[in-house]
Write a sequence for this structure.
């Protein structure tokens, strides 16, 4: 009797077919995963935007981006079910000092984009007077306006005027009334993505944070509680000049360094929450002037973006 079985050639053909199917399947799975992460990020931003609106409905104003030694996050935490964590939080001392230190070291998953590598990062900036400025990080930030350096990167015909109101929806040192968003809530960015801080990301290349030896490397503003979280967009300056200027144009997904622009780990763009509570995805080909116009709350620019 002859035994029946596969020949070596037949086995090799089957293995080759399986390999081809896997090669075709992996990119599809990755695209599905990326799409899912982008949607989850949008859901996070939607919850944050709703927290702002609930705060505004209660107080009749939006919180400051920065007030003294604190940023906007502790103000809205009670409105996304994190109020219990603030029972011992004190606005009379710095966000990194006791008793706040034990609170800000804990991550807030709602403020972490699922596409970001190493989501449970911790900022640990050394201070001349201890303790260090230490806190769990966030991938979202409040753009407090447009820095006039943006004019170095936009065409002459689209220059921003110093006589215009270049402030963002949230500003430093004071609250915002909805009536002050004269450009329109649907075209005024409330919160955007600046993911991966304190590590520096330029393009898709990461340089780990380095607070001590030259050149010092830092994409400042990583901690969710830090006053470095907000910034005005439009600059191309590294934290330490010895590290070298930020290469490439000022646009989405070029760099996550403080003052530059917006940055995410989504392919081709980033997510944004607007003052009307909507969340939209802007591509990294969005013109810088358009981004600047969307950041300002009362610049008077005629802009629409869907």
């Amino acid at each position: 009797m002859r035994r029946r079985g596969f020949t070596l050639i037949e086995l090799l053909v089957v293995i080759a077919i399986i390999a081809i199917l896997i090669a075709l399947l992996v990119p599809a799975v990755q695209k599905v995963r990326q799409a899912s992460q982008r949607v989850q990020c949008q859901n996070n931003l939607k919850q944050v935007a709703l927290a702002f609106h609930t705060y505004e409905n209660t107080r009749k104003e939006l919180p400051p981006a920065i007030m003294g030694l604190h940023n906007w996050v502790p103000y809205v935490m009670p409105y996304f079910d994190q109020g219990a964590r603030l029972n011992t939080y004190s606005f009379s001392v710095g966000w990194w000092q006791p008793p706040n230190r034990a609170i800000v070291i804990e991550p807030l998953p709602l403020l972490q984009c699922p596409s970001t590598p190493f989501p449970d990062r911790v900022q640990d900036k050394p201070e001349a007077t201890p303790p260090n400025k230490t806190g769990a990080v966030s991938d979202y930030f409040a753009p407090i306006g447009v820095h006039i350096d943006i004019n170095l990167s936009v065409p002459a015909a689209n220059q921003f005027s110093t006589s215009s109101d270049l402030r963002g929806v949230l500003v430093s040192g004071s609250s915002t009334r909805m009536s002050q968003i004269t450009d329109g809530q649907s075209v005024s960015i409330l919160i955007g993505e600046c993911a991966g801080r304190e590590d520096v990301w330029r393009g898709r290349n990461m340089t780990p944070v380095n607070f001590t030896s030259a050149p010092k490397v830092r994409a400042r503003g990583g901690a969710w509680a830090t006053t470095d979280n907000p910034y005005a967009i439009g600059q191309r300056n590294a934290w330490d000049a010895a590290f070298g200027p930020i290469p490439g144009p000022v646009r989405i997904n070029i760099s996550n360094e403080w003052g530059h622009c917006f940055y995410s780990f989504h392919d081709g763009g980033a997510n944004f929450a607007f003052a009307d509570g909507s969340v939209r995805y802007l591509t990294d080909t969005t013109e810088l002037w358009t981004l600047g116009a969307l950041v300002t709350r009362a610049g008077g620019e005629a802009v629409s973006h869907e």
